[in-house]
């Protein structure tokens, strides 16, 4: 089943990276940067990158 899935699945997909944090932004988000690097290395298209700063309550 996995073999068939890999055979018919697209090799590249469109992606978005979303960071939601109360302490990090796009410049300080190491895991978001790593995700973008891994997606780019796999030839996936990153269509959107968003960082949302949440306020602590």
TrEMBL record:
UniProt superkingdom: Bacteria
InterPro entries xref list: MoaB, MoaB/Mog-like_dom_sf
Gene3D superfamilies, per database record: MoaB/Mog-like domain
Signal sequence region: none
One GO process term, biological-process aspect: Mo-molybdopterin cofactor biosynthetic process
One GO cellular component, as annotated: cytosol
The name this protein goes by in its record: Molybdenum cofactor biosynthesis protein B
Species annotation: Halobacillus aidingensis
């Amino acid at each position: 089943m996995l073999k068939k899935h890999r055979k018919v699945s697209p090799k590249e997909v469109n992606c978005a990276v979303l960071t939601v944090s109360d302490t990090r932004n796009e410049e300080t988000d190491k895991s978001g940067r790593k995700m973008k690097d891994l997606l780019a290395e796999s030839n996936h298209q990153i269509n959107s990158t968003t960082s949302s700063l949440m306020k602590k309550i």
